[in-house]
Request: fold
Amino acid sequence: MAWTTPKTWVAGEVITLSDLHTYIRDNLNEVETAKATAAGQLLVTSGANSVAMRTVQSSYADATVTTSSTSPTTLGSGTPSVSVTHGGAMWIFWAARFRYSAGTASLVNCGPEVVGKYTARDNSAIRLNDSQRTRFMGGFFLFGITAGTDTVRLNYWVNSGSTTGEYAQRAICVIPL
Amino acid sequence: MTTWHTPITFSTGNPLGATSLNWMLGDNMNATAPALAANVASYFASNGANDISERKVRWAETNSSAAYSGSTYVAFADPSPGPSLTLEAGSHSGTFLAIWGVRAYNNTSGGGSFCAARTDNTVAADDWCVQNFGASTDLYRVFSFKLFTGQNHLTDNLVRLNYRTNGTGQGSWAQRVLIVLPF
Reply:
């Protein structure tokens, strides 16, 4: 169903069954309270006269993984990863403990990918050129992608193929809008 | 809390009574966001099926620097406590996102400085900490986060930052901020 602009009744008008359903029942079924199905869902707009309740998702992978790939790649069987339903925009937060563990001193990178819709890249990554373990987060607001249910996961890469990037305590959280 | 009633499918010959009107146009309208909104710059999240409440972003800051050499997580006492904030009963559904930032460093080579949020129900852990092995010349100010779930929402819940080192050197933490988004 969809929201219908409420009717302005006039004096003496007979209220029909159809009106009751269109302007009361169906419109009430379009409000946020009707759409809430579980605790912790966030109220967002999903278009003109349309709202949705979104579920914030997070995932964590503790295992230490390494790569010398100079292009973004998944590690640890694609972990961490979440599946979110969104309206074309989302806040993505992620964190990892990372460093270069062998080879040439060079940038080590970690950033989010929305499978099939947004590839990980330098300008939305957290980046570090250090052999000492450091753990911190990155944040990115992604918008303008096609609404739907998508997998969001972390990618990893280094700037030099002779560098080994090491990652652990990897976490991702997505607030879908 | 106003109880939500599943919108009625009316039928011919079934008069529109006061009960139906009160449920549909009274109780249900009073359970929507505009009726429940009480503050500016808030947002809404669900407490459960057909039950929503206004939420408000919370924020606390401690600018002063504190030092500590222990390897177990602790909260700092005066004169450099916190930051911490209390999520009052009913102000979240049991789920909230905590984001915190701190300038962390250590005075010894090989020394690490950690900072993680905790709640009344969850102890601080390295899994979601900020961690820096840099020295005082590496004045990193970095952030981390944790989506806390399954938290007690029926009583007040104190969210605060805890600190530890890796057992080497003295850690220092300054410019500490804690932000919580309740859901």
